[in-house]
C-alpha cells in the first residue's frame, strides 16, 4: 500500500495523459521508478479493489459514508499534531468532480466551479486541522438559531481545547451577530466580513453614503455589553467587518492604485481590517498547495477525488510540520522536493520483492536505509564495490541493493 500511495503522489508532479504510460516501453513516457517498484497489473488490481470503508456497514443517510471512516481518522490525526497557532481561518474548499452525485455543487465564478464542497478549518499558514464535507442545505443547520454558516463554524471548532483562546477569521458567508455573541461566550476571538443585510439595523453609516466618501474613510460602533466592534470601511468598495478581538487602532496605511492620479497612494486602514487580511488566507493557501501537485490518476468511482484530496492535504500538513522542525534548518525542502522525498521513499521500500539494478549509496534515502525493516544480506554472482569500505565484495543488501561486506553491513545501516 505504501508503494501504491507513492505512485499516486508521483502522479501529481510527473503527469502523463494515460495512467498506463508509466509502465510503457516507450522511453519518452516510461517512468523507471514506477515500473520497477510495482507492476502495472498489480497497481490496476489494487486500484480496482481499493475501498476506504466497509460497504456492509455504511452509515445510513450519510452521502459521504464511503469516505467517512477515513475522514474521521485523518481529522483526529490532524487535530492531534496541529501546530500551536492561535490564528485560525475558516472557509470553503472545492474538490473538482464532474460526475453525478447528490452532494455535487456548482459555484459560479470560483476557480473550481463543479465538485464537492469541503468546509475547512486551517491555520494561517495552511495547515488543515478539520475538514467537513457539505451534504446539502438540509443537513447543515445543526444549530438552527445560528443558521448554516454559524453551525458550520461551531462544528469545526467543537474539538478545539477551550484552555487556549483562538482567534477565528471567516468571510461573510458565516458571519452574523448571533454567531459572534456565541463565540464570545465560549471564549473565542473572531473577525469576519459582514453582509449589509445582517447588521440588524445597527446605527452605522449607510453603505451607499459611505461609497461616496473618500477612499480610506471609515465609521464604526461598538456594543458595550458584548464588546463586539463593527467597522465599515471604504476601500475599492465598501466592506463591513465584525470583530470581538481587534480594535480600529492603530490606524495603518494601505497602498492602493489611484486611477485619477495614475499612481499608488496610501489610504487609511483600521487595524481590524489589517488583521483580517493578514490571517484570513489559510484555506486559500491550502487550495493553492494541493492544486499545484494534485494527484492526476483518476478513477470512475465518485469518492476517488475526495480520497485524493485527503492524501494531498496530509502531505501538505506533513510539510507544514516539517518546516517547524529542526531538520528544516539544515535541509530546506520546498513542497515539491518534500513530496518527491515521500514518493521515492515509499517506492524504494518495496525493492526487496523485485530484481532491480544496484544503486549508489547516495541514491538510497535515509528513511529506507535506516528503517531497520527487511535488510537481509545475500550473495551476488559478480563482484562490486562495497558501499561502506569501497573494497570488492560478492554480497549485497537485499532491500537497498548496495554491495556490502558482512562486517560493513551493520555499520552501513546504522546512523
TrEMBL record:
GO terms for molecular function: sequence-specific DNA binding. It comes from the Eukaryota. Residues 1-319 form the PiggyBac transposable element-derived protein domain. This is PiggyBac transposable element-derived protein 3.
Amino acid at each position: 500500500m505504501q508503494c501504491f500511495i507513492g505512485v499516486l503522489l508521483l502522479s501529481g508532479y510527473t503527469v502523463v495523459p494515460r495512467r498506463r504510460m508509466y509502465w510503457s516501453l516507450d522511453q519518452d513516457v516510461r517512468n523507471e521508478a514506477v515500473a520497477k517498484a510495482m507492476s502495472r497489473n498489480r497497481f490496476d488490481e489494487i486500484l480496482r479493489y481499493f475501498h476506504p470503508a466497509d460497504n456492509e456497514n455504511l452509515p445510513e443517510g450519510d452521502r459521504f459514508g464511503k469516505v467517512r471512516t477515513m475522514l474521521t481518522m485523518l481529522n483526529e490525526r490532524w487535530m492531534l499534531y496541529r501546530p500551536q497557532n492561535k490564528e485560525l481561518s475558516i472557509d470553503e474548499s472545492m474538490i473538482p468532480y464532474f460526475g453525478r452525485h447528490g452532494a455535487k455543487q456548482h459555484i459560479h465564478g470560483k476557480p473550481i466551479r463543479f465538485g464537492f464542497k469541503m468546509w475547512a478549518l486551517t491555520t494561517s499558514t495552511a495547515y488543515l486541522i478539520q475538514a467537513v464535507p457539505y451534504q446539502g442545505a438540509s443537513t447543515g443547520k445543526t444549530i438552527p438559531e445560528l443558521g448554516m454558516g454559524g453551525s458550520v463554524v461551531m462544528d469545526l471548532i467543537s474539538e478545539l481545547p477551550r484552555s487556549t483562546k483562538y482567534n477565528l477569521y471567516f468571510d461573510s458567508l458565516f458571519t452574523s451577530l448571533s454567531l459572534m455573541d456565541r463565540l464570545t461566550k465560549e471564549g473565542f476571538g473572531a473577525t469576519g466580513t459582514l453582509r449589509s443585510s445582517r447588521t440588524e439595523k445597527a446605527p452605522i453609516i449607510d453603505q451607499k453614503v459611505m461609497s461616496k466618501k473618500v477612499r480610506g474613510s471609515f465609521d464604526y460602533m461598538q456594543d458595550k455589553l458584548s464588546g463586539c466592534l463593527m467597522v465599515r470601511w471604504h476601500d475599492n468598495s465598501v466592506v463591513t467587518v465584525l470583530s470581538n478581538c481587534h480594535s480600529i487602532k492603530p490606524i495603518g496605511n494601505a497602498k492602493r492604485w489611484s486611477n485619477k492620479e495614475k499612481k499608488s497612494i496610501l489610504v487609511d486602514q483600521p487595524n481590524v481590517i489589517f488583521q483580517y487580511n493578514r490571517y484570513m488566507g489559510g484555506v486559500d493557501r491550502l487550495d493553492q498547495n494541493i492544486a499545484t501537485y494534485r494527484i492526476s490518476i483518476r478513477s470512475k468511482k465518485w469518492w476517488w477525488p475526495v480520497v485524493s484530496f485527503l492524501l494531498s492535504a496530509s502531505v501538505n500538513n506533513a510539510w507544514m510540520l516539517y518546516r517547524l522542525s529542526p531538520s528544516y534548518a539544515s535541509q530546506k525542502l520546498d513542497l515539491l522536493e518534500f513530496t518527491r522525498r515521500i514518493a521515492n521513499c515509499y517506492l524504494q521500500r518495496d525493492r526487496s520483492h523485485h530484481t532491480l539494478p544496484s544503486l549508489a549509496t547516495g541514491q538510497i534515502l535515509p528513511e529506507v536505509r535506516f528503517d531497520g525493516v527487511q535488510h537481509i544480506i545475500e550473495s551476488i554472482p559478480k563482484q562490486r564495490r562495497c558501499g561502506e569500505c569501497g573494497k570488492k565484495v560478492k554480497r549485497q543488501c537485499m532491500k537497498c541493493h548496495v554491495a556490502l561486506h558482512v562486517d560493513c553491513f551493520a555499520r552501513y545501516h546504522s546512523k
